[in-house]
From TrEMBL:
Gene symbol of the encoding locus: PCDHA10
GO CC annotation: cell-cell contact zone; plasma membrane
Compartment(s): Cell membrane
Highest taxon, organism lineage: Eukaryota
Name listed for the protein in its UniProt record: Protocadherin alpha 10
Length: 830
């Protein structure tokens, strides 16, 4: 300071005076007052006049004045009492700012002598200023990731006062995160610093509001405060999370593509980019799941992306990651369990696994024909299958094990009735609606030789005309076998037997395959009228089955035998026969009787006699009985008649064409008295025998007629009784015999219903025949009577009674008479 002053060249004088003053001051002391700032007007400061040693009465004359450099009139002196007082408000801070010492320098000047006094008035500080912050609030951003003990300086407060009044202490509102630390810097005072004591968490406390209070040291103290806003900045310290770790989803199979399975919502407590999330399948998720499901990275929706088939897989475990976009990213996890529910989307399947086909028709009930297995891939009721069979006869399904069935024969089979069965096995599951499947099965029934060949009738009647050509086909037997193939292949054979002296096979043969029956040789009615034999039919099964049919071959008569004259009328024997007739005999006298027989039968054996007119003789007195063969006179003989007459007699049968024989009778007319015995004697022995024979025959015929009549009568009565008892049955109705064969000659007819006609229970002799006549040709006047009878009568029974004897019984329903007619007598056969 001194050096500086000495450095001022033009002020040596002033310097000297200042030195003097300083000495004075030092010697006399300098007045020093103090006054508190902000004192009231008029506040007493000091008795300045007295203290300077000035007289009160000198003040005015000596022009006592106080000058203050630039300070105006803060202080004033009362010239009356020489007291310095506060004239106007003194603000220390205004006066001195922040300097610790503050005083007002007064120059007190009095004239005469001029004296200058320096008075120092110290302005004492009072605490009139609170600590002040420059801003009303402070904002600090702190990342939540800051470590403990991190420090964050705050702006401090300032106090316009000085000294104690400016000694600021800070205080922080109570909080758990920060404490206040004060840093003192040498010149610049104290600075508050926030120190992190507890880790921040934005997610918990994104913002903190603290109050920093500054207090000065004055008495009384003043405080000032500022709000400190702490913004906690986000750090990626939170992983995205799902609200559950496992989500269970149930869904039906066969969902449409893109059906939503689950919408995952993860949350991230962070903010901004730290909470932006990306969903993805975890790396653990196998490819199959990645194919079946699709996750939307942005939204977290999991959707179906492929066919979901319960039967394929029924549970999916999907691990999902969610990653935020912070740095470093954080990952959250969850598991989605997708349980696939079954739908009835699978039809049952029917498999026929094994077949024992074809089934033999004699298979036992219970025979297993096929094994059937059914399956359904669905589960629960959807997979429960019920099997049914149509038609359910004659097979049935037997459940052997769950879903395995046997097709079992339930009743007996017969290939001949039904040769194959088309079975349908239907499997139906228990879903709703239920699905079904069916399998059809053709069960063939294999043939077993259980049917013998069968003839349509048990016996056949065949009519064959005699004199057939050798080897002619007379009949065809045919048997039907209901079996199949070789079991139905029928072969025919003759059941061999003896016919008289000969073997049957010399008469007939049967073609093994065709069943044609051939007559091997010409048949002769006169030798064999009825050939009865059996044809056997056998099939080719193993073992073979067979049956027999009876053939009755009637050999029909042909007119192949001419009438034969009996001795003595035989032409070749002794020429003509001579008869002696007395001229005196009357008309109608029987002269002789011509006898002839015919080996044929029926009309073919019915003989008639005719007298052929002799040459020249205009008028013969003789005639011959048409059927009797009796030669008798027609009138009285007279002289005109030649004594010897030759009568030519024609014997004719009724065959077609008729066969004839002739004989000549020589009649010699003798006068009365002449005995004819001579001529007769020649043939007496023969005639006697003949008469005796005729007598025997007549008795025989009568006896037979009587017996036969009785028999027929009995039969008729019995029949009539039966018919009257049961008239509706019709079995015994007369008439309508079925005609099987008719010959032009007379119609020997054979009735199929002959047993009915003759009343069933007691069948008559097998050779009884019904005879339905037709008009025989060439009816003469004499046989019209017989014919008439035949026409009127309904039944004609032909009896083969005694050997060689044939007779006809006819019954006339009009007259109720039984007529017996003997057609001829085969005397030769006696
Ligand atoms: C996810 O959010 C969506 C839309 O708000 C909602 O439909 C869905 O159910 C939520 N997912 C879960 C699993 O809560
Ligand atoms: C399902 O839809 C997606 C997208 O449209 C497609 O890629 C996928 O092939 C579909 N899946 C099936 C099975 O159709
Ligand atoms: C057929 O006739 C023969 C010979 O009489 C006999 O052996 C056989 O048993 C008969 N067959 C039948 C099926 O009656």
């Amino acid at each position: 300071m001194l050096i500086a002053r000495s450095g001022l060249p033009g002020a040596r004088c002033l310097l000297l005076s200042l030195l003097l003053l300083t000495v004075w001051e030092a010697g006399s002391g300098q007045l020093h007052y103090s006054v508190q700032e902000e004192a009231k007007h008029g506040t007493f400061v000091g008795r300045i006049a007295q203290d300077l040693g000035l007289e009160l009465e000198d003040l005015v004359p000596r022009l006592f004045r106080v000058a203050s450099k630039g300070r105006g009139d803060l202080l004033e002196v009362n010239l009356q009492n020489g007291i310095l007082f506060v004239n106007s408000r003194i603000d220390r801070e205004e006066l001195c700012g922040r300097s610790a010492e503050c005083s007002i320098h007064l120059e007190v000047i009095v004239d005469r002598p001029l004296q200058v006094f320096h008075v120092e008035v110290e302005v004492k500080d009072i605490n009139d200023n609170p600590p002040m912050f420059s801003v009303t609030e402070q904002k600090i951003s702190i990342p939540e990731s800051r470590l403990l003990d991190s420090r964050f300086p705050l702006e401090g407060a300032s106090d316009a006062d000085v000294g104690e009044n400016a000694m600021i202490t800070y205080k922080l509102s109570s909080n758990e995160f920060f404490i206040l630390n004060i840093i003192s810097k040498k010149d610049k005072g104290k600075f508050p610093v926030l120190v992190l004591r507890k880790l921040l968490d934005r997610e918990e406390n994104p913002q903190l509001k603290l109050l920093l209070t500054a207090t000065d040291g004055g008495k009384p103290e003043f405080t000032g405060s500022v709000s400190v806003f702490i913004f906690v900045l986000d750090a990626n310290d939170n992983a995205p999370t799902f609200d559950r770790s496992v989500y269970e989803v149930k869904m039906y199979e066969n969902q449409l593509n893109q059906t939503l399975v689950i919408w995952l919502n993860a949350s991230d407590a962070d903010e901004g980019i730290n909470k932006e999330m990306v969903y993805s399948f975890s790396s653990l998720v196998p490819a199959i799941i990645r194919r079946k499901f699709l996750i939307n990275e942005m939204t977290g929706e999991i959707k179906v992306n492929d066919y979901i088939d319960f039967e394929d897989r029924n549970i999916y475990e999907i691990h999902v990651d969610v990653t935020d976009k912070g740095a470093p990213p954080m990952v959250g996890h969850c598991t989605v369990l997708v349980e696939v529910l079954d739908e009835n989307d699978n039809s049952p399947e029917v498999v026929v696994t094994s077949l024992a086909l074809p089934v033999e028709e004699n298979a036992q009930v219970g025979t297993v024909v096929a094994l059937i297995s059914v399956s359904d891939q669905d589960s629960g009721a959807n997979g429960q299958v019920i099997c049914s069979l149509t038609p359910h006869i004659p097979f049935k399904l037997v459940s052997t094990f769950k879903n395995y069935y046997s097709l079992v024969l339930d009743s007996t089979l017969d290939r001949e009735t039904i040769s194959e069965y088309e079975l349908v096995v239907t499997a139906r599951d228990g879903g709703s609606p239920s699905l079904w499947a069916s399998a059809s099965l053709l069960v063939e029934v294999a043939d077993v030789n259980d049917n013998a060949p069968v003839f349509a009738q048990s016996e056949y009647t065949v009519f064959v005309k005699e004199n057939n050509p050798p080897g002619c086909h007379i009949f065809t037997v045919s048997a039907h076998d209901a079996d199949a193939r070789e079991n139905a292949l029928v072969s025919y054979s003759l059941v061999e037997r003896r016919v008289g002296e000969r073997a049957l096979s010399s008469y007939v043969s049967v073609h093994a395959e065709s069943g044609k029956v051939y007559a091997l040789q010409p048949l002769d009615h006169e030798e064999l009228e009825l050939l009865q034999f059996q044809v056997s039919a056998r099939d080719s099964g193993v073992p073979p089955l067979g049956s027999n049919v009876t053939l009755q071959v009637f050999v029909l008569d042909e007119n192949d035998n001419a009438p034969a004259l009996l001795r003595p009328w035989t032409q070749g024997a002794g020429g003509s026969v001579s008869e002696l007739v007395s001229r005196s005999v009357g008309a109608g006298h029987v002269v002789a009787k011509v006898r002839a027989v015919d080996a044929d039968s029926g009309y073919n054996a019915w003989l008639s006699y005719e007298l052929l007119p002799a040459k020249g003789s205009a008028r013969s007195p003789f005639r011959v009985g048409l059927y009797t063969g009796e030669i008798s006179t027609t009138r009285l003989l007279d002289e005109a008649d030649a004594p010897s007459q030759s009568l030519l007699i024609l014997v004719k049968d009724h065959g077609e064409p008729a066969l004839t024989a002739t004989t000549t009778v020589l009649v010699s007319l003798v006068e009365n008295g002449q005995t004819p015995k001579a001529s007769l004697r020649a043939s007496a022995g023969a005639a006697d025998a003949e008469v005796a024979l005729v007598d025997v025959n007549v008795y025989l015929i009568i006896a037979i007629c009587a017996i036969s009549s009785l028999l027929v009568l009995t039969l008729l009565l019995y029949t009539a009784l039966r018919c009257s008892e049961a008239p509706t049955e019709g079995a015994c109705r007369p008439g309508k015999p079925t005609l099987v064969c008719s010959s032009a000659v007379g119609s020997w007819s054979y009735s199929q219903q002959r047993r009915q006609v003759c009343s069933g229970e007691s069948p008559p002799k097998t050779d009884l025949m019904a005879f339905s006549p037709s008009i025989p040709p060439g009816s003469g006047s004499g046989d019209s009577g017989v014919q008439q009878e035949i026409f009127e009568n309904l039944f004609l029974f032909v009896g083969h009674g005694v050997k060689g004897l044939k007779y006809i019984f006819s019954f006339n329903p009009n007259s109720f008479m039984i007529i017996c007619k003997i057609l001829y007598i085969e005397l030769s056969k006696f």
